[in-house]
Design brief:
The protein is of the alpha/beta class. The protein contains 7 helices and 10 strands. Helix 3 packs across helix 4, helix 3 packs parallel to helix 5 and helix 5 packs parallel to helix 6.
Length: 234
């Protein structure tokens, strides 16, 4: 079974009476454990495709299967659960909460999931479990000694490591990274890519990286190139 299967996917936006096609019939498959880059210039449709893959938006037509499930047949509540539990998001902007420690930032998706399940994640055993899990993951990404620091006290690379740890807290099957090295210098960006590829290999996580940087894409197993809402051949 594929992790991702996209069949003849289209996405059209409407600006008043004007139709703006962002995706024009895209088809591809990504296997479990594969590391794939999606490349394209601005306006190619890669951000729209990322939003569909991440269950942040629905296609206008076509089919999207995530781990065998047709996303169009999933309720809004189930989609929210999928985004929280099955997909880990890493963005160019780190999107960390500035007033919280990095431990607390990493805990948040797990606490959110506990609340959705009807548990109180702020205290008691669930809160304790979330804290222990956050500490373990932060240690794994090299930030074991910085857990009580706030984001402003960390470098850009360290903040991105926090974002990766947060993406991992609910043990997702898919990491979806949108320009994860875009705000970093080349040396720090290389470290972040090395970490993502290590997670892909050691934990068999499916890794999809949206990028415009050929040097980033070249480190993945396969590149899907978009141009004007279509996949380029060759």
């Amino acid at each position: 079974m594929n992790m991702i299967e996209v069949n003849d996917l289209t996405k059209t936006y409407f600006l008043g009476s004007v139709e703006v096609p962002a995706l024009r019939g895209v088809s591809f498959k990504i296997e479990h454990g594969e590391a794939v880059a999606i490349m394209g210039q601005s306006g190619s449709g890669k951000s729209t495709l990322m939003n569909v893959i991440g269950c942040l938006d629905l296609p206008t037509s076509g089919q999207y299967f995530l781990d065998g499930r047709n996303v169009a047949e999933v309720s809004d509540d189930e989609l929210a659960a999928i985004r929280n539990q099955k997909i880990g998001f890493v963005f160019q902007q780190f999107n960390l909460l500035p007033r919280m420690t990095i431990r607390r930032n990493v805990e948040m998706p797990l606490l959110y999931a506990s609340k959705k399940d009807g548990h109180n994640g702020n205290n008691g055993s669930n809160g304790s479990t979330a804290g222990q899990k956050a500490e373990s993951i932060l240690t794994a990404v090299g930030l074991g000694e910085r857990m009580d620091h706030r984001p402003s006290e960390l470098s850009g690379g360290q903040q991105q490591r926090v974002a990766i740890a947060r993406a991992l807290i609910n043990e997702p099957d898919l990491i979806l990274a949108d320009e994860p090295t875009g705000n970093l210098d080349s040396h720090t960006g290389a470290e972040i890519m090395s970490l993502l590829l290590k997670l892909n290999k050691e934990q068999n996580l499916t890794l999809v990286i949206v990028t415009h940087d050929p040097s980033i894409a070249a480190q993945t197993q396969r590149v899907i190139r978009l141009r004007d809402g279509l996949i380029e051949n060759g």
